[in-house]
Amino acid sequence: MSQELENTLKVGRQAFAFFQHGLETGDWKQFLDMLTEDFTFWFPMGKFHGLNVGKQRAQEFFQYVTQAFSPGLKITSLDRVTTNETTVVFEFRDEGMLFGEPYKNRVAVSFDVRGNKICSYREYFGSDGKSN
Amino acid sequence: MSQELENTLKVGRQAFAFFQHGLETGDWKQFLDMLTEDFTFWFPMGKFHGLNVGKQRAQEFFQYVTQAFSPGLKITSLDRVTTNETTVVFEFRDEGMLFGEPYKNRVAVSFDVRGNKICSYREYFGSDGKSN
Lengths: 132, 132
Hints:
6-stranded mixed beta sheet; 3 helices; globular
């Protein structure tokens, strides 16, 4: 494994651990600290559908996620971690309540790594939110 | 790059080329020939939603895809290819007509490679089918 690949995997895994912590607890500080200032993300639907630009926008998004999935979204299995020199893709399943209704999904998130930060991510849904 | 990683990437890319050919033309033979007999796949929604088991089921699915997206679904950009020793993830955008209505999506497909075949895949949607 090249040093670049090793670093990308390490940074990606650290970011994912903080991402999971944010989903579960609503505390996003450590995850947000890992984002570059020019961070961008793509989300599949709702008010953050499409391309979102900037760290401020990310802050708003994760605050919204925490409100939507109160009291926290649980990752029930991490199915695959796939890496190259710049990108780490996590395939996982999650479960919780979405605005009070039972919610389950299969999700892929693809993190782009630059140095020891995440500069962008893309999220994809593998289910309809009712089963995973 | 290890020999195993190199083989996985090569087999994954070949399968993806045949997958793209199937989407565009409705001719799935070469892609289906690359699937193991115990092939399984996950699809996000509709009548093939969830886990699907067996090559026969895959045949039915891709026939359905061709009917749904007549006259063919076009991959407009391949955004990321991410690999480890067993899995290749393709992030791409597509565009076409779904039962006569304009359709666009961002998609991630994750192929699991065994030898020179694909033994399973998981599909994820990054958009709502109306924009990518």
